[in-house]
Amino acid sequence: MENINKYFEKRLVAQREWYDKKASLNKSKYVNFQKTIIILGATIPVVVAICAIFDKTELAAVISAIISAIISILAGIDKLVQHQTNWYNFRAAEEILKKEEWLFEYRVGPYSDLTDKKAAKVLIERVENIISADMARFSQSSENNKEYDDFIQNELKNAIEKADKIKEEALNIINEKEISNETSATTKTEAENNSETKVSTDIADNSTKEKIV
Question: Looking at residue 133, what is its pLDDT?
Fold first, then answer.
C-alpha cells in the first residue's frame, strides 16, 4: 500500500490540483475578457452621446473606432486561446479524477470486490487513461489553432478597415465644418462690407444734400 499512497500523492492528487488551478485560471480570464468586452461595448453609445452634447462628432467617431478595434482584438484573442473551452475541459478532468479517488477509497464501481493490489492496478490504469485522453485532446486542439489564427487575422483586418472608414467619415465631417465656418466668415465679412458701403453712401448722400441746400 506504500506504493499506491505515493502514487496518490505524487500523481493523482498533484494532477487533480493542477487541473483545478488551470480551470480556475481559465475561468477567471474568460470572465474578465467577457466583462471587458461588455463594458467597452456599452461605452460606445455613451461616448457618442456625450460628444454630441459638446458638438465633438469627429472625436466621437475616433474614440468609437478605437473602442471597436479593442473589442475585436479581445474577442479574437479569447477565441484563439479558448479560455472557456479550457475552463470546461480542465474542470471536467479534475472532477473525473476526484471521482476516481472516491470510488477507489470506498471500493465501489470498478474497484468493488478487488484486492488492494488489484484495485491499485486498476486505479493507476484508469487515471493514466484519463490523463492520456486529456493530452490527446490538447494536441488536437493545438492543431486546430491554425483555424483560429486565420480568424484573428480576419478580425484584425475588419477592425482596421472599420477604423479607417470611421476616420475617413470624421475627416469629412471636419472638412465640412471648416468649409461651413469659412462660408459663414465670408458671408459675415461681405455683410459687414455691404453695411459699411451703405453707411458711406448714406453719408455721401447727406453731404450732397447739405451742399445743395
Answer: 87
